[in-house]
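Morning - flavin mononucleotide inputs below, output right after.
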Amino acid sequence: MQIKKITSLVLAAVLSISLAACGNKQTTAVTSGQDKQQAESTQTADSSEAKEPESTQAENKAEVQQTETDAENESSAGNNILILYFSADNTKDVDAVSSATPMTDGTASVEWIANIIHDNVGGDLIPIIPSEDYPLEYEELADYAKKERDNGGRPAFENLNVDPAGYDVVFVGYPIWWYEMPMIMDTLFDTYDFSGVTIVPFNTHAGSRDGGTYGDIKELEPNATVLDGLAVRGEDVGKDSTKEAVLSWLEELDLE
Ligand SMILES: Cc1cc2nc3c(=O)[nH]c(=O)nc-3n(C[C@H](O)[C@H](O)[C@H](O)COP(=O)(O)O)c2cc1C
């Protein structure tokens, strides 16, 4: 009887240990389930977080696409316009477009106008850069240019990297030299066929106005439309009133 009691006690103890073990296992299982749920919900949160960047990415992509479309529209509108300009200051050594316009002694006055045009109508702004630099000292340049004219020179210029014939509108800027366009402009019109292009001349001068050069361009490019140009006195370059004059001329051209 004593032995039976001990056996039942041992059995009871074993049973309770087993039950306790089961209980622990279940708890562990529940805990694991919670972990999984938590993990799942974390993952869901993670994946929704991961989705957020995706949607942000999508938004960004849409924005980028929109920006690209805007840029395309802008450049397709802008690409129709080319602004070519020559000034003795245009040299290979200096980035004539991005360098600050030196407004000393009326030099680079053509570039000043070209920049205003570009700021307002967009398009491609390209300096005509002579393959051989011009002397910049006035007397020296005057002699050099005179000889070039007398010899019927056709000075070369650096590759424009564009074909003016591919544009609807080409602004062409230059100073008056010896009552005419610098000879390098003749090289330009000899080199390219502007048929079907609308040419808009602009120039600086010290009293000769356009010097009849707009008519000369018409003769050189009979199949182009040559609009009324703008002649600006070199000494008026840089003035607010001159900028206003350039802007109202642009408005009158009604290029839209
Ligand atoms: C070689 C040379 C010849 C010039 N000949 C004339 C001319 O015949 N008539 C005139 O009005 N201005 C003449 N000028 C003045 C320029 O047209 C004027 O200074 C212009 O603003 C220069 O432009 P840029 O600074 O962009 O080169 C001449 C200037 C130079 C350097």
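Note: The pocket of flavin mononucleotide is lined by residues 87-88, 106-110, 141-142, 145, 175-179, 204-208, 234 (CB under 6 Å).

O.
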